[in-house]
């Protein structure tokens, strides 16, 4: 009897849940994610696919500011010199002007295809063959590199093409392997000085000081 009475009381005093359920609209969150993704795609700078392995030296200074204008990056490593131009139209204009200086004609298709390249490490004598096979991974990663005179000419003409098109000079970066002997870096700096390029940046990996 006592058990039945307690059971009846438990049915009389059923607890009422105070938990409320709210519907969540995920649409604004998806919109925000799409906006962030679009921003990263439009404003992000793609990484250089470097044909030569470069182990960057370390430094203690850190600067997140990007220079205004267009970048020209000199790559030094494994006894090779290469050049990276970050704008396709400048690459095409530079190839056309260098070809004219050396009596080498390029078709519009060749110029357009060269505009798709990112790192220049093939001498002019064999660059037509290189363009015809681009992007061939074996040819890309086995580029022989430029001589110091060829590198100087590419830099001079590309900066001229940049100024003619955009009214500003490209900013020079040097990205050298940590094992590169200093005299090689000094020769590049001297070459830049001959072109009256006295302002440039050196790329290195940043180690946070504790």
TrEMBL record:
The keyword Cell division does not apply. Coiled coil: none annotated. It is a single-pass membrane protein; Single-pass type II membrane protein. Its main location: membrane. It is found in: Cell membrane. InterPro entries: ExbD. GO terms for cellular component: plasma membrane. Keywords: Cell membrane, Membrane, Protein transport, Transmembrane, Transmembrane helix, Transport. One of its GO terms (molecular function) is transmembrane transporter activity. GO terms for biological process: protein transport. The keyword Membrane applies. Pfam families: ExbD (PF02472). Belongs to the ExbD/TolR family. This is Biopolymer transport protein ExbD/TolR.
């Amino acid at each position: 009897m006592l058990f039945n009475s307690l059971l009846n009381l438990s049915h009389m005093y059923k607890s009422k849940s105070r938990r409320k359920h709210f519907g969540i609209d995920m649409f604004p969150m998806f919109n925000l994610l799409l906006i962030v993704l679009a921003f990263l795609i439009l404003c992000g700078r793609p990484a250089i696919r470097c044909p030569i392995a470069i182990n960057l030296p370390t430094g203690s200074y850190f600067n997140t500011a990007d220079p205004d204008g267009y970048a020209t990056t000199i790559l030094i490593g494994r006894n090779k010199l290469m050049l990276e131009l970050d704008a396709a139209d400048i690459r095409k204009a530079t190839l056309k002007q260098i070809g004219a200086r050396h009596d080498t004609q390029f078709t519009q298709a060749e110029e357009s295809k060269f505009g798709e390249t990112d790192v220049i490490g093939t001498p002019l004598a064999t660059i037509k063959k290189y363009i015809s096979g681009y992007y061939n991974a074996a040819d890309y990663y086995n580029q022989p590199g430029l001589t110091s005179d060829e590198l100087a000419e590419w830099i001079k003409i590309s900066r001229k093409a940049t100024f003619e098109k955009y009214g500003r000079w490209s900013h020079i970066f040097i990205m050298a392997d940590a094992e590169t002997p200093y005299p090689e870096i000094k020769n590049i700096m001297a070459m830049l000085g001959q072109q009256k390029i006295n302002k440039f940046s050196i790329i290195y990996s940043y180690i946070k000081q504790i």
